[in-house]
Amino acid sequence: MNGYMALYLRKKIFFMIKEVISDYREFRAWFFNWLFCFRQSLKMSLAIKLADIKQKAFNKQFHIMLLELPKGEKLVSVCRADIERFKRKKWLPKNIRTFDLIHGESVFYSTPVNRNNKSTPADRLAAKEKYFRYRKILVV
Questions:
Q1: CA nearest 121: which of 30, 39, 48, 22?
Q2: Closest to 101 in 3D by CA, of 119, 120, 84, 123
Q3: Predicted TM-score of the model (pTM)
Q4: Average of pLDDT values for 74-88?
């Protein structure tokens, strides 16, 4: 009986260790996903604040979009003049119209046209959610 009991206990312990390892892997995946979302949320919040500061300083409408630089993608806040400059630098396609770029899916957030218009926190939250959906599509 002792041999059977020892074998049974070894199997039970081995099964428990496998469960702990499985739980650890699941927690690790959740933690990295949370860290990714936190980092992207922080990037988007900073980009929104920068666009709002620029809008107050220059009284122009700024848009937050992803710009594909030679080093990689970067969230930037741009106005119409910046878009034209980026076209000349070939960071954006030359044949794309500015209107299509601003009012299409490539812009995550836009500041109000002038200082009198206020953007709501709901607009900012919608911009973050739109950016998250875009980033998750890229990761998966």
A1: 48
A2: 84
A3: 0.72
A4: 87
